[in-house]
Amino acid sequence: MTKTIRPRRSALYMPGSNQRALDKARELPVDAVIMDLEDSVAPDAKEAARTNVIAAIAAGGYEHREVIVRINGYGTPWWKDDLVAVATSGANALLAPKIGGADLLSKLGDLLAINGAPDEMRLWAMAETPEAIIKINSIANADPRLEVLVIGTSDLAKELRIPPDPDRIGLLPALTASILAARAHGLDILDGVFGDLGDTDGFIRSCEQGRKLGFDGKTLIHPGQIEVANRIFGVSAADVAAATEVIKAWEAAAAKGSGIAVVNGRMIENLHAEEARRVLELNAAIAGS
Description:
This protein has helices spanning 19-24, 46-59, 79-87, 102-114, 130-134, 136-140, 153-160, 172-184, 200-213, 226-232, 237-255, 270-287; strands at residues 10-15, 32-36, 66-70, 93-96, 122-127, 146-151, 188-191, 217-220, 261-263, 266-268. With 289 residues, the protein is of the alpha/beta class. It has two domains: 10-232, Alpha-Beta Barrel (TIM Barrel), CATH 3.20.20; 237-287, no CATH class. Strand 9 and strand 10 (266-268) form a beta hairpin. The two termini are 23 Å apart.
């Protein structure tokens, strides 16, 4: 079955305890809103945040934006009530943090079904520990609801004892392993956040690196980061023109019984035509959102 492409260039974390932020998200040019019940919410505000998030989803108005709720980690005092509330909230997906292995993710998928989640509700999973990276291939194949991996680069760098580094040299093995696992199992994968809001150039470089590595988009912590993420992980006019040219050349060659075409001195095979079609489908999805 062919997978429908959905733009996930930008995924913005919004604290569930901040009603103004949840309201503002309805107007932002972001592809996905991650309503957070975990890291950005203080312990004494967890229950109120859950109530805020469920009410915000029920009120609607997020239109084309995917709505995802990040629950608290398994084993905390709040995770079960979070999962039960999110299951029938109308959210597009539940984002599960601190996933250390396939068994836990599969259990959460089963619990969603038991608690009334519709078949179309998806699972997103965070890979943010060394244990998760070691087991990333099995995690990526753990549950049929799983659709997106999210890399928690801040937590991962902390646990790996990696000093701040704009080039993320120490994280590259984990990032590439995660991307390989995602692609092997037909998942999308989002890069981690960039925390220095004052370093615009650094954020741009981080997005460009993520795009070159193969990420589909980036998780964000501030609305001011949306435009850059959308641009870098999006489809430019030049991308559209190049993809269109590749498909035309390929189809013309195929009509003559040839399996190879040449565009601007570059040999084009079926794999290039398939990628060009994916680019155009993503562009159409972005335009329709």
